[in-house]
Each structure stands twice: as structure tokens, then as C-alpha cells.
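Note to self: the last two entries modelled the partners one at a time, which told us nothing about the interface. This time every component goes in together.
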Amino acid sequence: MDDLARLLAAHPFLDGLGRAHHAVLVGCTKNVRFQPGQFLLREGEEARTFYLLRAGRASLEVHVPGRGAVRVETVGAGDVLGLSWTRLDGADPSLPPRVHLDARALDPVVALALDGACLYRKMEADHELGYVLMKRLLALTYHRLERVRLQRLDVYKASP
Amino acid sequence: MTTPIPLFDPMVPAFARISRVDRELPDVFTWHLAAPSGAGFSFAPGQFNMLYAFGAGEVPISISGDPNRPEELVHTIRAVGAVTRAMQGLRKGDTIGVRGPFGSAWPLAEARDQDLLFVAGGLGVAPLRPAILHALAARSLYRRVIVLAGFRSPADFIFRKELERWRSRFDVTVEVTVDRADTSFRGTVAVVPALIAEVELDPAATVALLCGPEVMMRFAVRELERRGVPHERIHVSMERSMKCGVGFCGHCQYGPTFVCKDGPVYRFDRIERLFYVREI
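The predicted structure of the combined assembly is written out below.
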């Protein structure tokens, strides 16, 4: 348990959070590994897990009919994966949250896997923790949105 | 490194012969030119020349060659307009006109004993190449040397072999990303600011040199701000319609400055106010 708390504290997403909060999160966390090619998340499956990547890289992919898997981004150590459990997408709350992208290990990946439902309950029970994590999730979402906007602009396309 | 001034009358092109043409991409090529003077062609990294394709016209093109090899003038050009398309049709042995070098340079002397962070987007790697080559040749003058480069896709790498060679060195950090890729690509897929967010930086000792599409540089500046790099440590290369090259004609006016003479390399804090003015 101490090891998990230490690993949680060492991840940039939880950096600076109090020791007590790390201890609370330990109950939702396990250490996981993936081999290259293995999927961390599959589009359409129930969103249960929030990953904090510790080592290795993973690719976020969307399956496009006729084109196959399209790689939209790669993430690595220090990044997080799997935000669908937050239900921030506005989906019907009576339905289970769904994963919207495939996430596939490109290298051997080591991550902390947090159970989304467990985390959600902890955040509901402790609003201070919930507020801190929501602020970080919002910042993360904002940064990702900013990057998607730049990506969408296709700025390197030749134009006279 | 002082900024060289034009060899001859800045308004009169000198003749230069194309000694080699490298095809970088279907629409991007690199010219190697025999220097127009026997004494060589001295320039400072970041400067540009006006290149004249006889019968077609003249365009400003950054110098992409090695500043330690003045006997050869190198330009990397994208064929996007009438003049550059005509240039793409020229071959080894053909002659062109050259005026220059013009403009300001990357602040390599100021950056001594600092970390040098190069941030390139697409063809923006070409104007940074002379500065990178200088930094690698005079490696002991700088602390860390970091090159972050973004391209549209894996098929759009410019200077791919050279990037791979730099990456193989133990004293340089090189990270390359593409905006989009299929699953056969094993590298990083992300925009350049994502590389800035990840790289190890000492903000108070970093000099950042940025070149690429203006929108990309805006996002990159924002990420550097988040990392704590002060504006006076960020330098950007701006692009406008340069014509005369010496600040007479006014075509490249950028607020109270002329890009051909006061730029193309600007310290960011000096143009921050202009950077976000639309259509300037």
C-alpha cells in the first residue's frame, strides 16, 4: 500500500496532492503492465479505468471504416488515459459510460490503473479531493482541446 | 556571431550556379549553389536571401546551409507559387540571381552557456538548420541542445536523415512528432507544443528559437509560457512579403518594423503586442 501511495505521489497528475488524499486513492489503484500491441482501452467498452502512465507509450486510435485504425495521438510516461468514467461528456447518466477511443500499447507500458467508479465515489464523498481532481482533469481536458484545435488547423499544409 | 551585410549593391543580384538539387518532398527541394564570390558567402543563421529565377521573379528564401561552409549557399524551397514552381523546374548547372544576406539572425552569441531549445514546424526546420549546425559544431559553447520538430505526417519529414543523425548523438536531445499518422508509424503523434510540455527544461537558462507557421508558433509560445520561459528568452522567425530586402519598399512592414531588416528573427517580448494583431 505504501508503495502504491508513493507511486501515486510520484505521478505528475497527482503531484502536490496531500498524503491523505494519496492514501484515499490507494484503495482504487492497482499497478498494471501491458505488452506492445495490447489494448489499454477499447472504443465502445464500458469506461471503468483511469490510467496514469508511468513508463512506455500508448497510441490513441479511432477506427474509421474503410481506412482502419487512425492514430490521433501518442501519449507517454506522465500522461493520463481514459477520462470517460468522469461522465463529463454529458451522456445519459442511467447508461454506463463508454470509452470513445482505442488505446494501444506501443512499448511495454507500466501504469497505475484507477477504478473509475471507485474514484468517482471517493470524489463524491470528499468534495475537497473531488474539487482538486476535477480542476486537474479540467486543465488536462483544456490542454488536449488546445492541441486538437492546432492539429485540426493542419498548419503545415502548403498554401500559396 | 555578427550579422553579415550584403556583399555587393543590395539591389543588384549576383549570379550563382546551381551545383546540386536535393528533392526533399514532392513540392520541397534544396538548392546547393556555388557561392557567387570566390571569397565565399558569409551569413548568420536566420538570415535570408532574395533568389531570382530569371524570367519568373524574385522571392525571399531563408538560408538553410551550414554557416561553417561559406563556399556553398544552401536554400530549401517549397514550390507553392508561380516563382517557386518555376524554380523547381531549374536543374544543376542553371544560373539564378542572389541578393543578400538580409535580416536579423538567431541570437547564438547571447545563448552561450545557456540551454538552446529549437522548436521547428514543417518547413520551419530549414531556417533553423544553420543555427542547429552551428550549435552542434560548437557544442561546448552551449549547455543542453534540444531540437523539437513537428511535421504534418511521416511522409512530410524534411531533413529526415539529418534529424536521425542528430538524434544518434549523445549530446543532443531530438524529438520529432507528426500531426497525423496511420498505425504503421512507430513515432510520436502529437502537435509540437506537446513536445514542449514533455521536455526537461530549465526555463531561466533556456533560449528558445521558434520557426514555423505563425499559428504553430502562437501555440508554442503559450506552452513555453506555461513552462515558465520568459518572453525575452523566446525568439521567433516571422514571415512577410519581403521585396527589396533593405527596408525601402515597405512591403514587409510589421507594425513599426520591417521584417526584411529588423526581422525575420525577433525577440518575442519586442513584438508580443504585434503578435496577436490580426492581418498586420
